[in-house]
Structure to design on (151 residues):
């Protein structure tokens, strides 16, 4: 089942069950996908829909961090609760060990030998793990792997 269809079905289910936060969150996901479809870019792909959902997850994560920094714990917790719901629509996230293993494979594949090869490894790593790992975690793993191979 495609992502947009699943979101539509889950929205109907949330309406029936009366789960307000879930319904509100799923509606925002649906709105993001509809906005993408209406942007005039043509037909949306599954990857486009996934990017829209990932963007919504990133927004919630960033907002939660900002609210926490401002001492607004109530708003931060709401954003975090929405993030948990949004993450149901994202691929299973890789563990730190899985990220390191993938980065090590890419470093070996590209023949990278030190921090100077970051610009070679990072794009390949992000492409290989898109949607399954946060960019900051991938970046940290790439830096660690390249610094380790330089010694």
């Amino acid at each position: 089942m495609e992502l947009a269809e699943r979101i539509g079905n889950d929205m109907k289910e949330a309406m029936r069950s009366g789960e307000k936060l879930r319904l509100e969150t799923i509606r925002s996901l649906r709105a993001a996908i509809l906005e993408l479809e209406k942007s005039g870019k043509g037909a949306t792909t599954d990857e486009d829909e996934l990017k829209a959902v990932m963007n919504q997850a990133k927004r919630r994560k960033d907002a939660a961090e900002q609210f926490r920094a401002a001492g607004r714990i109530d708003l931060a917790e709401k954003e975090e609760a929405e993030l948990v719901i949004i993450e149901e629509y994202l691929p299973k996230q890789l563990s730190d060990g899985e990220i390191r293993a993938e980065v090590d494979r890419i470093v070996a594949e590209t023949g990278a030998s030190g921090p100077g090869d970051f610009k070679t490894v990072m794009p390949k790593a992000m492409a290989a793990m898109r949607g399954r790992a946060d960019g900051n975690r991938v970046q940290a793993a790439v830096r660690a792997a390249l610094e380790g191979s330089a010694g």
User: Anything to note?
Assistant: The radius of gyration is 18 Å. Residues 78 and 98 are 30 Å apart (CA to CA).
